[in-house]
Structure formats: C-alpha cells, structure tokens
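WLM domain-containing protein: structure, please.
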Amino acid sequence: MAEESFNSAGTIETTFSYHGTSHTFDFPPESTIADLSNRISNELSVPATNQKFLITPKLGILKAPFEHPLLLSVLKSKKIVLLAPTPAELASLAPPRPSSRPSNSTLKPAALYRHRDRQKAQDEATYTFQTILPLNYLPGPARSQKFLERLRDDPGIKASMRKHKFSVGVLTEMNPAEHTTHESRTLGLNRNRGEVIELRLRTDAYDGYRDYKIIRDTLCHELAHNVFGDHDRNFWDLCKSIEREVREADWKHGGQAISNEVFFDPEEREGSGGHVDGGGWSGGEFVLGKSGGKKEAPSQILNRREAMAKAAEERIGRQREAGSGGSGASGASA
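Here you go.
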C-alpha cells in the first residue's frame, strides 16, 4: 500500500511492492512519480524504460516517460506495484562473453542457436505475468504462490502468451467467499484486458485446491478476454485456439488432478450454465453482452444466471437418477 505521509522531517514516505518485497523511500513534498522512477533506477538498478507502476484503485498502469508527472502526495492510501524484470533477469538477456578456445579448434560457433535462445528468453520475460500475488490473509499463501508460479511457468501457457504477445500485470488468486452465490461460482476475472487476472484456486470451504487443468483452462479463458470482452463468437474462437495451443505445447504433460471433482464442463460452456465468468472487466465494471445494441440490465443478467443454474442442477439430477454417472456440476457463472 502506498502509504504516503509527512514524517517529522517534513518528507513524504512512499511505499511500493516489487516482486513481493515492500520498499519505502522518503521524498520532498513536491516530488512526483518521475522522482520515484529515478530513485528506483538508482537504488534498485531497474532502468526507467523497463518500469511500469500498477496503481490501484482507479489509476491503473503508468509507465515512462511520465509526460504529466503525478504528485506522490496524491497517492495516499493507494497500492503501488512495480512491474519490471529484476536486475538478474535483465542480466540473463545480455549477450554472452566470447569464449576463448584454440585457433585450431574444429568446433563451429553456434551463434544462430544462441540468438534464438536469447530471443526466446527476452520474449518470455516480456510476455508473461509480471507479478504473482497470493492472498496473504487466506490460509497457506505459500501454497497459492507455488500454484500461481506453476501456471506462470507452464510450457503451454508460456508458448501461447508468446504467440499472442500477452503481458499481464498481476496474476492473483480469488477469494471464493467474494464470488460465490447459491446459484453460481465465478472461476476467473480479467480486469481491464490484462491489468489483473484473478483465478479461483481454492475450494469453497478453503480446505483444498481445485484441479490444475481446470484452473489452467480458466486461465486460457481469461487470457482470451485480453482481446475480447464479450462472450461472442470471436471470443470463443480465440479461447478454443488458446486452449489447443496450451495442450499441444505442454511437453511436460503437467496438471495432475488434485481431486476427482469436476467444476465445469468445457464442452458445455457455450450452452446453459457453463460460462467461466461474466465477461471481461473494463474500468472496474463488467462488459456485458449486448442485445439489440444495448447493454443488459443487472436484473436481466441475474435472472438469466439463475435460470441457467437451475437448468444445470435439473440436468445433473436427471443424469444421477438415470444412473448415467453425471457427477460433475458446472461451477462457473455466465
């Protein structure tokens, strides 16, 4: 949290988070976000050109050059997250030193191969989740941290993000209590087309974690919201394309199930009761589906979701009565 306050020396204390670590700097009262950027460049060795600041609520992402400098004094009570690669990550992208070997060596230089590796490393550092944030107030945040890191490092997710040039500011977990009703459960949210993606990692009772591949499919769904907000034909075509790319590039064949419970049926998500979320968020509001060129009213959305949830429950009940083994239930909101 950016807790700017005037201390006894008459300076402003500005706190920000960088790769999970909190930093506090003192500044003169008239200092701006550009002064914070210069201080970070000098003390943390992060060049200004690589810096992005996620400032919430409302302000969103700011990056250099700061043409309209924002006074640090107006950021009181706002959360500041620095989104930038670490010096170690930047160093890994530097050209390797030439190796010394005898002039009569018969080995051929592998310059082209090394060049491809460097390009891939640079792309992976750019098209990724810049910050991983578990919810520290929930039980076992370290396990959530590892779960989110596993998603970030999943070979299929990395390959698809490079292909589509997706860069996400923050990947975090969702508090189930805040997105659960009797009728529906939201599995994922995408705010402002990639500023923040939230995923429902935990079970409703906080006593376990959901199936990895189900969560990974939800992440594919949310990544598609980087391009399309509404659940229209273009969105679903992109979503299926991302899921296919992730599965094909998953050379580790990762994602073993943690339990036998199924939380939504991917084959039915375009039908009743199968949507992962209510669409992409823009400016803190849902981007709703359109009907006749107008946005649906909240009461219409609620009634539609209730009808879809009831239809899903009735369908599952009929399957169980018929002994068809229909144990899975859609856990996503439309």
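Notes: Confidence is low (pLDDT under 50) at residues 254-275, 283-305, 325-334.
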